[in-house]
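Lab notebook, bench 4. The sequencing result for the construct came back, and we need a structural model before the next group meeting so we can plan mutations. Quick request posted to the team channel:

Model the 3D structure of this chain.
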Amino acid sequence: MLRARLFRAYVGPFSVLDLLDQAGPITSSVGPHSHCASPPIAPPSRVAHLRRVSVQPAVIESCLQWWTVDLFLSPNREIVAVTMDLWEP
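Done. Here's the predicted structure in token form:
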């Protein structure tokens, strides 16, 4: 039996590339960032020591539209990990 993968009321599969392709204007930042209406969430422990570059929507009308794609870069500026977080629909 195939089970759907759920995350905050979304059903996978999830694609960072699809999300970014459909995004309107975006903004980027370096380091920890808030999650719309909540405080910053710690990155996965395996990449917490790496430089974090975040891409988020530049304009939202509600937290339901908020998302983030975080890139974790090595000292050589290579992408080591990518995470995506979505607010609940």
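The chain has a mean pLDDT of 86.
Will bring this to the meeting.
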